UniProtKB/TrEMBL annotation:
It comes from the Eukaryota. This is Membrane insertase YidC/Oxa/ALB C-terminal domain-containing protein. The keyword Transmembrane applies. Keywords: Membrane, Transmembrane, Transmembrane helix. The lineage of its organism: Eukaryota, Rhodophyta, Bangiophyceae, Galdieriales, Galdieriaceae. Residues 29-242 form the Membrane insertase YidC/Oxa/ALB C-terminal domain. CDD domains: 5TM_Oxa1-like. It is found in: Membrane. Belongs to the OXA1/ALB3/YidC family. One of its GO terms (biological process) is protein insertion into mitochondrial inner membrane from matrix. It is a multi-pass membrane protein.
Length: 351
């Protein structure tokens, strides 16, 4: 839907927001653009902090996940069974660390990009329409916000900041990679992004794109380029706070502290697994001994009563059920103890 000026409705709403901010604050247009960029960045910053917090926690689990992967690779079973086991243990490890793959989704960037694009597009429309004040409420050498920067200072400054931000982001992604041959797609992508060769190629591509679009940016109205430059500066500040030395000022822990906190989670998980396996063996052993007492005839109701009593006393947690089966070889009936969910035979006594 378009408004009377031919703008999309969302652009028209953004233009109204800019005009309202300008009129209510009484600021010149250059200061209004700075204020708007700050408001957009501040609104999405909590989501960026949330994503970075959980990304750091997930990153600190890398050594523990490698230990789980090694543990599963040494366990018996087919490749498919090992993959399923690793996924279950990985999920349990993430649960114990209060982390999740869903929590590291860059919600902040996903929210900021459409807001920034809409705001920039609305500023562009205001400059093309020469809204009152845009031709005279600039600053320093670019008083006319509707005209391109005559000295190309803003486009060059913006390009330099974008290149620096790209450098810092890719440098923060570099860390020792895993040598494991059994990796999920997410692990492979993360490892690739930590490969120095991939990082170098990313730098070349992103910085090359920034240089290639410079001629286009230099011909945009200075109001648009100024808003973009302010946003890039705020992004640099955000990087300093989230992945730089400013982390401690906003409550983000150092990565060495997170690694120390995560250390031992795999050992705790292995102990619980061993304890669960031993407990299951004891439960099956008690059931087996009871069935041995009825070796002359299959008294199914006796076994069922025993299982109910064991559950009531909380000595049986496995989903076991008893049923009578016939031996194909001897033709005799026997009591079989099977898992209720899968029907897999766990133990039996023939009569």
């Amino acid at each position: 839907m378009n408004d009377e000026n031919g703008d999309f409705r969302i652009i028209a709403i953004a233009k109204s927001a800019w005009i309202s901010l300008h009129e209510k604050t009484g600021l010149p247009w250059w200061a209004t653009l700075v204020t708007g960029a700050f408001v957009i960045r501040a609104a999405t910053f909590p989501l960026c902090w949330y994503g970075q917090y959980h990304a750091d926690k997930l990153s600190s689990l890398a050594p523990e996940l490698n230990r789980v992967r090694s543990y599963v690779s040494r366990s018996p079973g087919t490749s498919l069974q090992k993959i399923r086991t690793f996924r279950r243990l990985r999920q349990e490890l993430l649960k114990r660390s209060d982390s999740s793959s869903l929590k590291v989704i860059p919600y902040g960037k996903l929210a900021h990009v459409p807001l920034f694009v809409t705001a920039a597009a609305s500023v562009r429309r205001l400059t093309f329409q020469k809204y009152p004040g845009f031709e005279s409420e600039g600053i320093s050498w670019f008083q006319d916000l509707t005209a391109p920067d005559p000295w190309y200072i803003l486009p060059m400054l913006n390009s330099a900041i974008l290149i620096a931000n790209t450098e810092n982001s890719l440098k923060a992604a570099e860390s020792p990679s895993s040598n494991s041959s059994k990796q999920s797609l997410q692990d492979i992508v993360a490892t690739s992004l930590r490969d120095p060769r991939v990082v170098d190629w990313c730098k070349i591509i992103l910085q090359g794109v920034t240089i290639l679009v410079f001629p286009l940016v230099s011909h945009l109205p200075s109001g648009v380029v100024f808003f973009w430059t302010v946003n890039s500066l705020l992004n640099s500040l955000q990087q300093f706070l989230l992945i730089g030395r400013g982390r401690r000022y906003i409550g983000l822990q150092e990565r060495t502290e997170l690694f120390a906190q995560s250390k031992g989670l795999a050992d705790s998980l292995f102990r619980d697994i061993d304890s669960s396996v031993e407990d299951a063996r004891l439960q099956l052993s008690r059931v087996q001994k009871f069935i041995m007492e009825y070796s002359k005839e299959p008294l199914l109701y006796k076994v069922e009563e025993f299982l109910r009593n064991e559950r009531r006393l909380k000595r049986l947690t496995l989903p076991l059920v008893a049923e009578i089966r016939k031996d194909e070889t001897t033709g005799k009936n026997y009591i079989a103890i099977v898992m209720e969910s899968s029907g897999e035979k766990q133990g039996s006594d023939k009569t």
